[in-house]
């Protein structure tokens, strides 16, 4: 048999097969050796099967007319390829014949280019579901899959797609075939385990079979167990339902739209009639808007009192506390911000304000309700429970710091500062309250101005970055990847680079080369990654994938004392002066947040991080785009844009920040680039001028 490939012809001996599966497997295997992928296009049992190229056909619009017609975000990969091979059954044998042996496109250099090669089989889907239920992240799931199948070409994006498909099918009342149920739990909104105590809601199929399934029964038991645990912590007491005595049968089961599918049985006096929680709409809103797998609603005393200390504040802010690391997306040096909404007489009336808070703070995993409690969520019951424990610890710490007259919102947690002879926090409030053990009535003034600093050319010479940090990363990238290749962190770096490089290849970026799949061996993968990283460094690319990897390489250098951060002589004095005046200082650089913390934590003047309230990198947006500064303003809670002063050496960044309403100053340091004439910005040669 001959199969044409462009203008070349590959020969395959014409054979017959006893089973159609053998015929289709041979076709796929042979096509892959030539750089193509084929699949079954049409078949009739025991009669024929037609196999065609996976790029055959053309893209069809789902909606034919109207403004809402679906638009593709990128060009279709379909080329209407005419290649077709037909197998026909004759006397219990399947004979192969060529209908059209020519492809109208070039072969792929990487089999992962073919979507069908990245699909998971039934066993792999089951494993994804089971690991998702235990709170494992996609990259952890992918690592387990590759341990089972070293030739797997799927990546973390494919895992995300399967997780999304599972969630969609659950919401639509279906279950994926050959998939087990995951567990989500107490006081929660869940994606597939609908067990609901008086303050618990879930989404589920309306099928009675599913309601009675083992997965639901297991979840009921888990919720009851966690309710007993939360009762001992003081989170769920006094609600009218005896949480410490709950059993699995006491749970409600709700559908995705809030419809009750199953109710608890009646109990004799003195038990009250069962009543589904008024929190259900709020749980569903967190599930819908935040893709939550579990939500915990707590009446813990600390979550109530912490909102009363500052009765007009719309946010709870705290920084430089160890337990902040337990909150999703946060580290020790970050500032944790939790929105506060006002309480209402009926809990269901909080839905609108909760929605507004989640919209205004898209990265938050909690919302405080003044004089009431807190809602906390995560992607699984384990994540929600862990974060709830950390949030309650931080609320309790803030209360105790306040009782000692200390300000929990500043890095040093020093005395609550005196503003015009009056003690107060640096937060936006408008009237006084009793200052804990201080015993003083005081008025809180509006929040003080804050300062946002660039690094290169502002706090640190450009030459330190170009002559020290970049060469170090360039020289050690291969060594770093080889040493830490199998670690979860490095695999995350590699996946991020793969995504960036794929975009670069599609856009024709100079220096971008394809990354082979993992099954070819890590040596070839590392070699191609090094080539791409070196090209990015030479071009001074400001992309997150590069900056994240560089940060991890530099961390090794700082930890081994091969690197020491460098700042200008005026920087420590300026930071200390601003800090003593109650002015909050933040860093915004194209370097990763970790790299920023390494530089200031290991500087030629020692650890300067105690003067800094937070770090921002390009994950909030490009520094030359105004929306990035709007994002930062929202994150730090500035009352108005003019309350923030931004210092940079880059004219385009200054223009973007000013467009967002910030006050901007341009740093004139030795080695900085020239500015255009009549640029219109104030210039400074030292931070002490501010």
TrEMBL record:
Binds 1 zinc ion per subunit. Substrate 2 binds at residues 589-590, 623. Keywords: Amino-acid biosynthesis, Hydrolase, Lyase, Magnesium, Metal-binding, Methionine biosynthesis, Multifunctional enzyme, Zinc. Gene3D superfamilies: 1.10.720.60, Class II aldolase/adducin N-terminal domain, HAD superfamily/HAD-like. Substrate 1 binds at residue 279. Residues 451-690 are annotated as: Enolase-phosphatase E1. Coiled coil: none annotated. Residues 221-399 form the Class II aldolase/adducin N-terminal domain. Its EC number is 4.2.1.109, 3.1.3.77. Residues 1-407 are annotated as: Methylthioribulose-1-phosphate dehydratase. The keyword Nucleotide-binding does not apply. Its cofactor is Zn(2+); Mg(2+). In the N-terminal section; belongs to the aldolase class II family. MtnB subfamily. In the C-terminal section; belongs to the HAD-like hydrolase superfamily. MasA/MtnC family. NCBIfam families: enolase-ppase, salvage_mtnB. This is Probable bifunctional methylthioribulose-1-phosphate dehydratase/enolase-phosphatase E1. It comes from Liquidambar formosana (Formosan gum).
């Amino acid at each position: 048999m001959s199969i044409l490939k462009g203008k070349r012809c590959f020969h395959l001996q014409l054979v017959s097969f006893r089973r159609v599966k053998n015929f289709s497997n041979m076709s796929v295997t042979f096509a892959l050796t030539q750089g193509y992928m084929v699949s079954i296009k049409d078949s009739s049992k025991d009669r024929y099967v037609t196999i065609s190229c996976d790029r055959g056909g053309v893209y069809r619009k789902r909606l034919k007319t109207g403004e809402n017609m679906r638009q593709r975000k990128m060009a279709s990969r379909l080329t209407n390829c005419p290649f077709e091979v037909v197998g026909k059954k004759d006397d219990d044998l399947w004979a192969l014949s060529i209908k059209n042996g020519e492809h109208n496109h070039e072969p792929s250099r990487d089999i992962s280019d073919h979507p069908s090669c990245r699909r998971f089989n039934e066993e792999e889907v089951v494993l994804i579901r089971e690991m998702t239920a235990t709170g494992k992240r996609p990259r952890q799931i992918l690592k387990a899959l590759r341990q089972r199948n070293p030739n797997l070409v799927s990546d973390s994006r494919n895992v995300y797609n399967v997780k999304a498909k599972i969630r969609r099918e659950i919401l639509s009342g279906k279950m994926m075939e050959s998939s087990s149920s995951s567990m989500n739990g107490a006081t929660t909104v869940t994606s597939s385990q609908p067990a609901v105590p008086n303050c618990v809601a879930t989404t589920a199929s309306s099928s009675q079979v599913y309601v009675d399934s083992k997965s639901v029964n297991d979840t009921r038991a888990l919720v009851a167990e966690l309710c007993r645990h939360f009762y001992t912590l003081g989170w769920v007491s006094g609600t009218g339902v005896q949480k410490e005595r709950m059993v699995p049968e006491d749970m409600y089961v709700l559908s995705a739209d809030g419809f009750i599918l199953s109710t608890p049985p009646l109990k004799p006096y003195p038990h009250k009639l069962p009543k589904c929680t008024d929190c259900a709409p709020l749980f569903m809103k967190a599930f819908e808007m935040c893709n939550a797998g579990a939500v915990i609603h707590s009446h813990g005393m600390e979550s109530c009192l912490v909102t009363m200390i500052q009765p007009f504040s719309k946010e709870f802010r705290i920084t430089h506390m160890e337990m902040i690391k337990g909150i999703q997306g946060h580290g020790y040096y970050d500032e944790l911000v939790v929105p506060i909404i006002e309480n209402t007489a009926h809990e269901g009336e909080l839905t609108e304000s909760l929605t507004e808070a989640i919209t205004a703070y898209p990265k938050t995993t909690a919302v405080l309700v003044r004089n009431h409690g807190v809602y906390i969520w995560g992607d699984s019951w384990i994540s929600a429970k862990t974060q709830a424990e950390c949030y309650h610890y931080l609320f309790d710490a803030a209360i105790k710091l306040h009782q000692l007259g200390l300000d929990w919102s500043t890095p040093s947690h020093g005395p609550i500062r005196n503003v015009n002879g009056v003690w107060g926090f640096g937060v936006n409030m408008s009237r006084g309250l009793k200052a804990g053990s201080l015993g003083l009535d005081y008025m809180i003034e509006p929040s003080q101005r804050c300062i946002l600093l660039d690094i290169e050319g502002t706090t640190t010479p450009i030459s330190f970055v170009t002559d020290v940090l970049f060469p170090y990363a360039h020289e050690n990238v291969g060594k770093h990847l080889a040493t830490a290749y199998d670690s979860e962190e490095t695999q995350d770096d590699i996946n991020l680079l793969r995504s960036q490089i794929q975009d670069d290849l599609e856009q024709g970026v100079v220096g971008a080369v394809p990354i082979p799949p993992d099954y070819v061996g890590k040596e070839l993968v590392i070699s191609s990654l090094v080539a791409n990283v070196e090209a990015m460094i030479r071009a001074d690319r400001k992309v997150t994938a590069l900056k994240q990897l560089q940060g991890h390489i530099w961390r090794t250098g700082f930890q081994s004392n091969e690197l020491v951060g460098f700042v200008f002589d005026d920087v420590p004095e300026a930071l200390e002066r601003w800090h003593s005046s109650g002015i909050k200082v933040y860093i915004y650089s194209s370097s990763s947040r970790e790299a920023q913390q390494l530089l200031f934590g290991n500087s030629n003047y020692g650890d300067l991080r105690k003067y800094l309230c937070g770090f921002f990198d390009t994950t909030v947006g490009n520094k030359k785009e105004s929306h990035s500064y709007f994002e930062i303003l929202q994150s730090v809670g500035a009352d108005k844009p003019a309350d923030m002063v931004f210092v940079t050496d880059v004219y385009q960044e200054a223009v973007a920040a000013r467009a967002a309403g910030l006050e901007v100053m341009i740093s004139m340091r030795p080695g900085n680039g020239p500015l255009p004439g009549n640029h219109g910005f104030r210039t400074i040669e030292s931070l002490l001028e501010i």
